[in-house]
């Protein structure tokens, strides 16, 4: 009698102090915190919420807007993508999310493409697509076909991950996840894209021009980056690319909503391991310290991206590596015909990729609003410049002859793939997981979802669900 009275008081004190503004809970329901509400955090919430037999209470925390590196800027009443913008036709999860939520797709790049070396175009497209293919083949020959085959093979191997995850297999580190796709993938992390392509017999010209230009536009880097991210990057230059009508960030918003998770706009300062194996979170601007059975980090945590504290853990965590700064400058105005030697509006190149390591910009491309198809009339003339450093006034004047408005977004965009950083662990401690470890293999929206599903499986397993029981894997059908 007395002890049950005491238990009630303790429970009420617990509810009052620990759960204060949070909902009162079913004590058997596992509580999961997700830190970060980009595509990784929101898809982790979604997968966890759909795991049969888990029934979790999920809290998602983010210091910024939902979507993270999937973001838009409004220019003259239209929204334009400034972060993650294009998806590959074989990005299965992103495609399925779009379909499942009933979102429309917007077709990608359709303009004229050119390779600029800092003084002239070494290759540029004209109005005739047959001629364009012929002149590309003339310049790069056999290498073009070779790379096409290599990327196709890689995508076939890559796609094995979807069955592996449907079958409930999860991996505690990135190297093991890549091995499950194909044993050769880990070798690709250890050599540069340049070395890998050379080894396959691809020409020096292709590597220096096309591969280089594609690495610059996608990752702000060069073919010195490792071959795995290099191949993801080459795949990102294929045809059939798409984005979401209305903006890519509609997907993380819909995932968060569909997961039923609670969202809190808070910055997490530290994760504290308690003696009972559970975790408390500490916030920057809030004295509560809620308690969780599992915590998922869904944000970069290298020392240049985060100041996160880990308290009371038996070992110190190391997050080697750093993130590459990519500055996205959105310009509403006119491109400078003189700089690029355009005779008239019909000779303007819409997608300018660069092949020069020391040039001050990586790419310059005409952009269309998220709700207007590429190539359509009516939208304001907007260009997107990617560079490693903010553009100086003279640099902007070199690229543009008239400017109405500019918007500058400085991203810690994706890892620096300089070959010094080995891939890390998804499992930091039993119950504590890190999705973004996968970014050191390659950073992309689809990679975030693959990492999130892996981590959701690990967390579910930690919380007592048999993840390889096929009956529990029903969400691969619904997905
Ligand atoms: C300019 C650019 C172009 C790109 N282009 C493409 C592309 O075309 N195709 C493609 O597939 N990918 C592209 N990417 C990569 C892609 O956008 C990212 O890989 C992906 O969006 C990362 O999602 P994420 O959820 O892992 O991380 P994020 O989106 O960074 O989300 C992490 C969130 O966590 C929050 N957070 C961090 N610390 C804390 C804390 N302590 N407490 C609370 N919240 C915190 C952050 O505010 C952030 O919102 C591009 C990226 C950039 C920057
Ligand atoms: C490459 O860029 C640098 C710096 O802008 C420039 O000096 C050099 O001439 C460029 N190379 C070519 C081939 O134009
Ligand atoms: C959120 O989800 C509910 C169902 O769970 C749905 O009815 C609603 O339309 C969704 N809202 C948005 C903005 O997606
Ligand atoms: C971050 O860590 C690297 C080693 O990985 C180190 O060289 C660098 O000085 C550190 N930077 C900061 C800001 O602590
Ligand atoms: C600048 O904006 C005005 C109206 O907002 C528009 O009419 C004009 O064409 C724009 N100029 C350029 C160079 O895009
Ligand atoms: C990954 O985890 C193992 C222990 O499981 C540890 O020895 C190793 O140092 C970790 N690697 C990184 C990069 O943190």
What does this structure look like?
Belongs to the prenylcysteine oxidase family. Residues 125-463 form the Prenylcysteine lyase domain. Residues 1-21 form the signal peptide. One of its GO terms (molecular function) is prenylcysteine oxidase activity. One of its GO terms (biological process) is prenylcysteine catabolic process. The longest helix has 18 residues, at 445-462. This protein folds into three domains: 30-68 and 249-321 and 419-470, FAD/NAD(P)-binding domain (3-Layer(bba) Sandwich), CATH 3.50.50.60; 71-89 and 105-140 and 323-415, Protoporphyrinogen oxidase, mitochondrial, domain 2 (Polyamine Oxidase, Chain A, domain 2); 144-159 and 183-239, no CATH class. The strands form five sheets. It has a seven-stranded mixed β-sheet with strand order 7-6-16-17-18-15-19. It has a six-stranded mixed β-sheet with strand order 9-2-1-13-21-20, covered by helices on one side. Helix 2 (39-49) packs across helix 15. Mean pLDDT is 92; it is low at 1-24. It is of the alpha/beta class and 479 residues long. A hairpin with a 2-residue loop joins strand 3 (72-75) and strand 4 (78-81). The protein is built from 16 helices and 21 strands. One 2-acetamido-2-deoxy-beta-D-glucopyranose is lined by residues 76, 332-334, 381, 402, 404. The site of one 2-acetamido-2-deoxy-beta-D-glucopyranose (NAG) has 2 residues, from loops.
């Amino acid at each position: 009698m007395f002890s049950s009275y005491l238990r009630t008081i303790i429970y009420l004190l617990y509810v009052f102090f620990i759960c204060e503004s949070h909902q009162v809970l079913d004590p058997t329901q596992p509580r999961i915190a997700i830190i970060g509400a980009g595509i990784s955090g929101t898809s982790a919430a979604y997968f966890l919420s759909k795991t049969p037999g888990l029934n979790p209470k999920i809290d998602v925390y983010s210091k910024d807007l939902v979507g993270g590196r999937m973001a838009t800027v409004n220019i003259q009443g239209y929204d334009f993508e400034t972060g993650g913008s294009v998806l590959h036709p074989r990005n299965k999860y992103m495609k399925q999310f779009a379909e499942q939520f009933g979102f429309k797709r917007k077709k990608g790049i359709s303009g004229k493409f050119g390779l600029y070396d800092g003084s002239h175009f070494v290759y540029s497209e004209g109005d005739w697509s047959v001629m364009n293919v012929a002149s590309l083949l003339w310049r790069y020959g056999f290498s073009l076909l070779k790379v096409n085959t290599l990327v196709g093979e890689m995508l076939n191997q890559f796609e094995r991950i979807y069955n592996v995850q449907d079958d409930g297999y999860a991996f505690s580190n990135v190297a093991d996840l890549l091995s499950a796709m194909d044993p050769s993938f880990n070798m690709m992390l250890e050599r540069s894209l340049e070395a890998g392509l050379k080894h396959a017999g691809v020409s020096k010209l292709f590597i220096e021009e096309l591969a280089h230009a594609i690495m610059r536009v996608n990752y702000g880097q060069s073919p010195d980056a490792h071959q795995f991210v290099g191949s993801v990057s080459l795949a990102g230059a294929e045809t059939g690319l798409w984005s979401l009508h209305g903006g890519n960030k509609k997907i993380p918003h819909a995932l968060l909503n569909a997961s039923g998770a609670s969202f809190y706009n808070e910055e997490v300062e530290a994760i504290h391991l308690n003696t009972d194996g559970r975790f408390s979170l500490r916030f920057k601007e809030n004295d509560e310290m809620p308690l969780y059975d599992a915590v998922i980090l869904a944000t970069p945590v290298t020392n240049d991206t985060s100041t996160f504290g880990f308290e009371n853990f038996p070992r110190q965590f190391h997050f080697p590596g750093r993130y590459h700064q990519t500055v996205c400058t959105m310009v509403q105005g006119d491109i400078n015909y003189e700089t690029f030697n355009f005779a008239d509006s019909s000779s303007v190149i819409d997608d300018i990729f660069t092949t020069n390591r020391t040039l001050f910009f990586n790419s310059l491309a005409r952009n269309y609003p998220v709700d207007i198809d590429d190539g359509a009339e009516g939208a304001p003339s907007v260009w997107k410049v990617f560079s490693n450093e903010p553009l100086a006034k003279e640099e902007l004047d070199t690229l543009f002859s008239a400017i109405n408005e500019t918007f500058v977004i400085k991203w810690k965009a994706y890892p620096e793939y300089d070959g010094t950083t080995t891939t890390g662990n998804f499992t930091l401690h039993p119950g504590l997981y890190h999705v973004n470890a996968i970014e050191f293999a390659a950073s992309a929206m689809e990679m975030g979802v693959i990492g999130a599903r892996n981590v959701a499986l690990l967390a579910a397993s930690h919380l007592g669900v048999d993840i390889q029981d096929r009956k529990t894997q029903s969400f691969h059908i619904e997905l």
